[in-house]
Amino acid sequence: MDLSLQLQRPPSYKVVLNHTNGCFKIKPFLGSRQFTPSRSELRTSSLSRRVTASAADFSKERPRISSNPSSKGPVPEDFISETQGETNMHKRKPKINGEKEDSGMPTLTESVKPNNIEVESKVGLETESSTQKRKPKINGDKEGLSMPMLIESVVPNNIAIESKVALEEESITEFYHKNKVDEGQNEEAKEDLPSVGKELDADVSNLNVVNGSIRLDVAISNLDVANGGAGNLNVVNGSMGNPNVVNGVSNLNVVNGMNNLNVVNGSISKILEDVAGLEKKEITSENGATSGNGASIPRDFFFEGKHIDGTKAYDNGAAVKIERGETNEERVEDNSLQLEMEANLRRQEIEGLAEENLLNGDKLFVYPQIIKPDEEVEVFFNRSFSPLKYEPDVLIKGSFNHWRWRSFTERLNKSHLKGDWWSCVIHVPKEAYKMDFVFFNGQKIYDNNDETDFCIPVEGGMDEFAFEDFLVQEKQREQEKLAKEKAEKERQEEEKRRIEAEKRRIKAEKAASEVDRAQAKTETERRREILQQLIKNSARSIDNIWFIEPNEFKGTDKVKIHYNKSSGPLAYANELWIHGGHNNWNDGLTISEKLVKSEENEGGDWWYAEVVIPGRALLLDWVFADGPPKTATIYDNNNRQDFHAIVPKGIPEELYWDEEEQQIVRKLQKERKLREEAIRAKAEKAAQMKADMKERTLKRFFLSQKNVVYTEPLDVQAGRTATVFYNPANTVLNGKPEVWFRCSFNRWTHSMGPLPPQRMLPADNGSHVKATVKVPMDAYMMDFVFSEREDGGIFDNKDRMDYHLPVFGGIVKEPPLHIVHIAVEMAPIAKVGGLGDVVTSLSRAVQDLNHNVDIIFPKYDCLNLNHVTDLHHQRSFSWGGTEIKVWFGKVEGLSVYFLEPLNGFFSKGCVYGCGNDAQRFGFFCHAALEFLQQGGFNPDIIHCHDWSSAPVIWLLKDHYMHYGLTKSRVVFTIHNLEFGAHFISKAMAYADKATTVSCTYSKEVAGNPAVSPHLHKFHGILNGIDLDIWDPYNDKFIPISYNSENVVEGKRAAKEALQQRLGLKKSDVPLVGIITRLTHQKGIHLIKHAISRTLERDGQVVLLGSAPDPRIQNDFVNLANQLRSSQADRACLCLTYDEPLSHLIYAGADFILVPSIFEPCGLTQLTAMRYGSIPVVRKTGGLYDTVFDVDNDKARAEAQGLEPNGFNFDGADCGGVDYALNRAIAAWYDGRDWFNSLCKRVMEQDWSWNRPALDYIELYHAAKKY
């Protein structure tokens, strides 16, 4: 049987082997280099060993058992002293009297590893081997001849000798051969050893081992071990005659044979005397287990083994294992005993910790006391010291790394420990550097360490910075995974769409082909009837006019067509030509030949032409002329009936008409496909133009603050540094001696938190200062503000909106917002005014920016359901004593939830004007919030509009945000201050953010009592126009489509169509358009003056609009009649609403006049620029914010990233109108090229919802901070 012994932290030994006759075979262990340990003073060391034995496989080892350092004291009888020394890397070679250095000797091979030195050797009975067996004589030996040979091989960090005797730091092995030498006389043999792998054999009669160990594969007659013990002694497949052991043996394994065993003052005799006693005995000391005579043995010094009779032996320290053989069942029993010992020691340590913490009044400890990553830790909690002391259940809730990694919740169990200790086991992830946790009862009672939470550091793993890097890498991997999943999902969806589109295309193609065939059949029947009638009335010749020879012919034949020149109007023509075709000119002109004079002219002036008959002709058609096609002036066309002749041997008529029908089908299909391709190309171009405009707008949005802030590089890149340039001269920090930069990322939510304030340094470009910041890889937005001091003071935070710049190339994308609009108007299903347009257009624009948008809307009985798709009943709920049905549908691609209360509030046939509108809409506001709460919605933003949905705001703040809608913030938009002042005032007080429809208008109404107390949260954001409705490139109401590339051509055609439709003179003069409601707000007195002024400048005027006030309407009717009588060809007033005509006016006019007294936003001027018409406006509200005078507003336009785009004026008198209108008309007359370029410029400016949507998203994020 093979047996091995491994020591994890081995001691050093001195070994004396006395041996008798025998044969050694010492097989060296492979290593990388060799050394011989030298003698040194040895020191006491801790010992941890593992011993395994197997009859089948020498290499198998048992689990290791560790130990603690042993205490000092006398050595007990049953243990030998174990020491260790420092490793010496010098080679030694034992010297033997009279022996040559190259003689063959037994070898000992060692392999060294830090804190783990294993020594192995094999000694056995063998036959002659390749290594010569020698038995050298040593002069003076008394007891016989023994010849040790030490071969040592060093592998870095590993020393091994096959008998598994481990030596720590420095191992000294000494071989003494005593043959008739006086007692005490020893000769040290030193030898430089040969290379690894050499095997030597020797006969051994007596073997002495001093302070060491060796594994023997021999038959031994006598064995003496004296003075310190044999350390580890293994005898396998041999017998021991009379072994004598003095002063202890640490481990003795004998397999297959032992005659007598004597142990004096050692452990073996004790073990053999009482096996059972050793198995149960545990004596502890301060540092570990203590032997029977008081010597201190390390607590964790374990060894398991079997006595010669097969029983096990251990005594908390060195032990003896003597085996004849071990079964699998015995190995399992060995392991269970080892685990039992470990559990006992662990229990003792935990009990000690529990007692210590109980005495100190501490409620918490963990075991092991040093937490390491990727291991388990048991948490002990003393309930009696906690607010949970009367609670039957105790749970732990926690996470790692400041609550940022791997959360857990576990139930604690009552432990056996003294005191009210509860415990559970938590696995510590490998990424942890800190464990954070609290205790609770599973409900609402917590022990959170006086609101500071419990935390324990994790040692030996990541630090906080490494964890941050790990998180970034994790996010990157997650993003890559999500990107792949998204790409795959998109690919699958695209493939699905492609398949569906292909199915639709095939279906549509089939339907279109059916239409084509039906149309071809109809056309064929029509042509057949006409041709048959012509064939019926035709002849083969007409006497004295024409004839054909030969008389019988077929298609492809050459014939002569004879014509009597004197019979008709060509009698005096210098030339005669025949222009012909076939089958009622079905293929157009296919015959053109010059006639020549016939030699036979009997009975007239005959001429003829040789003509090839078309192959598919049933009937020939022709006329005679005085010249070739396109130059002839005189024709003989048989009195406008043309000449026709039957083809006598033409193709079968049925075959012809079948072929004709197929030919018509092919022609129709080709024409249809050309139309479809043109439509598709136009749609693609329109989409590309919209995308390009959107990209320009986004860039302009972030450049709009360049006069205050910009960066280098302009596009901030993740993982790189960016320099921020700031111009305090244009801000509240103007003149401050210092400017401090305060920055973070991802809307101030980045895990790094706000960066330390940074003092900005002067830049090279004038008044700017600068600061540089490193952008993390997981950033998608850079956020910053400026202050006058490091500790704060005055801040420039962009009116509480903060500065934000997008970060490109990061591994994290900005999470979408969830916005819910609650409104009572929505275009096109229930539009009354501009509010309905805003709700739909703004929602679409925000949704196009990848945010989630829903709309909650009343289900009026007057809804225009033609614009609702997929409308279906979703569910019902009750509130306010009535059942409310919830319907879901899509409007313009938006998700809309329609609320239909069964109390009839919205079954009135109208939106407003029911007498109880406040009650109706108040109920709707309550129901909308109830729907959100009961449906589990918790949107980021609830956006309310005007007084009709204002109650939502205070109902949310007073009630619903405490019962489910906890994270929702409210934005309130004022569209019209004229209605519901009380509701608007209360909504302003409760709202997180409030807006109106332009920046200038927000300043104009700042003094309003409903607004003035809340200016800190009141912002102006422009409305936009719908590019799909107002699009000259896809407008069915104008004569030709155009964009900025062909604006001159498009507007010229539109002007001509407009002049023709309204009866104006078709002339190239400046045309002024006015599209408005005729109210005092719109400046009707200025409109009248502008009409007369334009006519004075020889321009034309078109007005479209009506007045809700009958007096104003009648006034304009009279003006229209006057103009009709005096200026009918230059002025036209259409006093009604006509949407198609409004499109034509926007396209055909050169200027659009908007002289409003006040105008919150205004869409007319924006639509005008969309069609390339130049706005002429009064400086008020949104008109001032959107129209920049070409002469006076260049700097103001540049600040917005724009170029001047129109003409404006101050005041509300005729002089102001003249100032702007005169300059506009003069520009048209004096510089047409410049004017045309201005038209192109305004068309390329984006006045859609692209920019307002970005402003609203910034506002939504600002509202979330409250």
From TrEMBL:
An example Gene Ontology biological process: starch biosynthetic process
The protein's Enzyme Commission number: 2.4.1.21
Annotated spans, Disordered: 37-118, 124-143
Low complexity: bias regions: 43-56
Pathways per UniProt: Glycan biosynthesis; starch biosynthesis
Pfam families on file: CBM53, Glyco_transf_5, Glycos_transf_1
Molecular function, one GO term: starch binding
An annotated GO cellular component: chloroplast
Intracellular or extracellular location(s): Plastid, Amyloplast; Plastid, Chloroplast
Catalytic activity: [(1->4)-alpha-D-glucosyl](n) + ADP-alpha-D-glucose = [(1->4)-alpha-D-glucosyl](n+1) + ADP + H(+)
Signal sequence, renumbered to the chain: none
Residue stretches making up the Carbohydrate binding module family domain: 374-459, 556-648, 719-808
Domain of life of the native organism: Eukaryota
Keywords for this protein: Amyloplast, Chloroplast, Coiled coil, Glycosyltransferase, Plastid, Starch biosynthesis, Transferase, Transit peptide
Alphabetized InterPro entries for the sequence: CBM25 (IPR005085), Glyco_trans_1 (IPR001296), GS/SS (IPR011835), Ig-like_fold (IPR013783), Starch_synth_cat_dom (IPR013534)
Coiled coil: 468-528
Top-level enzyme category: transferase
HAMAP family given in the database record: Glycogen_synth
Family to which the UniProt record says this protein belongs: Belongs to the glycosyltransferase 1 family. Bacterial/plant glycogen synthase subfamily.
Protein name: starch synthase
Organism of this sequence: Hibiscus trionum
